[in-house]
Queue: 3 jobs
Job 1
Amino acid sequence: MTPRRCAWVPEGDELYAAYHDEEWGRPVHDDRTLFEFLVLEGAQAGLSWRTVLARRPAYRRAFADFDPEAVARFTQADIERIVQDPGVIRHRQKITSAVSNAVAFGQIRAGSGTFAGWLWAHVDDTPIVNRPKTTDDIPTETELSRGLSRELKRRGFSFVGPTISYAYLQAVGVVDDHTVDCFCARR
C-alpha cells in the first residue's frame, strides 16, 4: 500500500516521492547540503522543482559536489563550461549567482563558524513545524522568509527572494509543512 503523501507529490513519481519522503522538511545541519539546496532553489526559479530534481546529478558534477569553497573559486572559464553543460539549466545568471553565492556563503561561515549555525539561529535552533490541512494552506512566503531574503541579499546573495527563501527553508527542514494527512507528519 502506498503511503499517503502531501498532495504536491504526483502519484507514481518515484523521484518526487523519494525527495518528499527522505529530504523535504527534514532538518539539515550540514553546510555542504545547505549550499546544495541554495543552488538548486535558485536554479528552480521560474521552473518546476521536478525539472531541478531530475538534473541534480548533473548539478553535483558541474558544481564540485556542492563544495562551497571550491565553487567560490570558480573562474569565468568554469562558468562558461557550466553554461555549455546540457545536464544543467543553462541560465547564465543563475550559474553566475551560484558562484557569487558561494563567496557570500563563505563569508557567513567565516563570521559565524558555520552557515548552519547562522541559519538555524534564525529559529533558535528549533524547526518550525506547521501542519496545514491541505497544500493550499501552505504559504509561498512568510515573515521569516522575507527577513531571510533581505538578510541574504544584504550579504550579497542573489536568486533568494522571499518565495525562493521559503522553499529553501522547507527543503532544509527549518520549516516542516507536511500536511496533516501525510505519513511524514507523524515522524
Job 2
Amino acid sequence: MTITTSAPEAPAGEVEATKKRGGGRKKLILVLVVLLAIGGAAYWFMLKPAEAKTAPKPGEVVSLEPIQVNLAAGHYLKIGIALQLTAEATEADGSKALDATIDLFSNRPMEQLTRPDVRAKLKKELVKELKERYDGEVMGVYFTDFVTQ
C-alpha cells in the first residue's frame, strides 16, 4: 500500500484572489510613478526658484535745479535732487522727477522733515515712484539741497 500525500489544492477562488492582489501592486506602483512624475513637473514649472535679476549698472547722474515746496504752517522746503540713471538710460526729462518730489513733500510738517529716519523713508518712496515713472531707467536719487524754513 502506498500512501501519497499531496498538498491540498487551494480552492479556485483563492487562486484568483492571489492573482488579483499581485496585479493590484503593479497598479499601485504605476500610480505612484505617475504621481511622482506629475509632482516633479509641477515643481519645475511652478515652484522652482525664480532666476535672480542682475542689478542694473549705474550710468549718468543728472542734477536738477533746486525747487521750493510749500510745507504745512507756512514753511517751505528748498530741495535739489540728482537722478542716478541706469547705463541703459538715454536721457531723463526732469519734469517727472520734480513733479513726484512736489507731490511727496508738499504740505508736510517741517518738524517731520528734520528727522533723518523720516527723510530716509521719503527718499525710498521717491526712488520707488521714479522707477515707475521712468520705467526702470532711474535707479537712485540724491538730495543735493535740503533746506527748511
Job 3
Amino acid sequence: MEKLVLSTAEQGRPHPSDQALDRAVFALRMQRPAEAEAIAAGVLKASKRNVRAAIVHGQALMAQNRAGEAVVSLEKAARHTDDPTAATLLASALTAAGRADEALSRLRKIIAGRPAFPPAFRELARQLDLAGRTSEALATLEAGLELAPDFVELLVDLGILRQKSNDRAGARVAFAQARDLAPGRHDICAALARVMLADGDCTAAADVFRQALALQPDDAALRADFGRCLLEMGERDAGEEVLRVAANEPLMAGRIIMTLAASSHGRFFMRPSRAEQFLRART
C-alpha cells in the first residue's frame, strides 16, 4: 500500500487542504471541536485517504465525547499509514469506547516497533494506571525512557506516577531530570518544588518556587504554595505577604486561610471578618 504523508506542499506553497486542516487544528486548540470536525469532514469528502484529516476528525469527535465515531475515523487513518500517531490515537478512542483490551493490545504492538514512539508509551502507561495496574504503568514509562531518555513528557509522567505511589524520592529525581531538560517549563519547576516541600526540604523548594514564579508570575496556586514554603521555613512575614498577593485571585482566599491554619508558623482565625481583614492588610 502506498504510504501517505500527513501534509503536502506544491512549489513551496501549502496545499489548500493543509491550510484548511491548520484551521481545524487551531479550532481544536481554541476548544471549538464542532468547527474542527466540520472542516476535517470537508477535507475527507474531497480526499477520503487524507490521513491528517482523519486524525483531526477523530480528535474533534473525541473532544465531543463521541468515541465510537472517532474509532471509525481513526481506524481508516491507521489503515492508510504506518505513522504511529494514528494508531496511538485510535487506541485512546478504543478505550473511551469501552474496548480497553483491544486498545492495550494495539499499544503494546506500537511500543514494540522501532524507532521508539514515546507518545505510545505515555498512552499505554496512562491506560494501565487507570486500570489500577500502576506497577506496569511505571515499568512502561521506564522502558520508554530507556529508548528516549530526553523525552520530557515521559519524565513528567514518571514523576507524577511515582508521587502518586508515595515514592517522593523517585518523583523528585524524575522532575529534576525533566527540569534540566526543559528549564523554561514552569509546570515542571512547580512539580519539583512541591515534591521538595512535601519532603520537608523547604530551602531547596523555595529556590525552585522562585524559578517557577519567574516563569509564570500569575500562577496564584503556585504563589500560595511558595507562601506556605516560606512559612515552614520560619519566614513568617515574607510568607504572609506572598499569601496575601495570592489571595487577590478569585476563589483563592479559602485556600490561603487553610494554609495559614495548617502551617506550624501560621495563624488561625476565629471569625471570617478577621481573616478578611488580615488578607487585605499589607506589610
